[in-house]
């Protein structure tokens, strides 16, 4: 399997492409701010044809470029229904006083939006990706999990990072829900590779052993990585 990515825009949000191999169809995960140019270069490099865009959640740093990416290739976007409204109204995810940060920015839904369901298995581009609803960072946060040889890869969005977890202090965030979602995720095998929405990759085993926010999966003062 081919997995590649790059940090996009000022938020340095990881945009990923996933394909069975070079020269085949692929899916795109979380095309954020200014992701179009970097994504186009990655697709040319590996001779890939996107068939869908998958979104781990609706925060603007993860969905900024979804409409142009989908529109240029006539492919659908997949998002959990709890976050769908953020595609066209990203300000709902921020306190009112933060609205000026995105003043004048106009986002819209792609023409074809499909809704993700917990436990669904998406068969796309010759891949099978299991959708797991993991609220806490947002109400509609999900992860995508796919097998790779003898292990699994987890696209974690802003649920789990190397050494940290997602923030829960924005509208739609819920710390208790985040802890429940993390507890479910920690049932995955230690060797599971975690590809987060920001920062470097890690593994479930490494985070279980070293991440201070996962000790007893108990509440801690909030980390701040990601929107």
Automatic annotation (TrEMBL):
Annotated signal sequence range: none
Pfam family, one: Lactamase_B
Cofactor: Zn(2+)
Domain Metallo-beta-lactamase: from-to ranges: 12-198
Keywords of this entry: Hydrolase, Metal-binding, Zinc
SMART domains: Lactamase_B
Keyword Transferase: no
Listed Gene3D superfamilies: Ribonuclease Z/Hydroxyacylglutathione hydrolase-like (3.60.15.10)
This protein's name: MBL fold metallo-hydrolase
Lineage, top ranks: Bacteria, Bacillati, Actinomycetota, Actinomycetes, Streptosporangiales
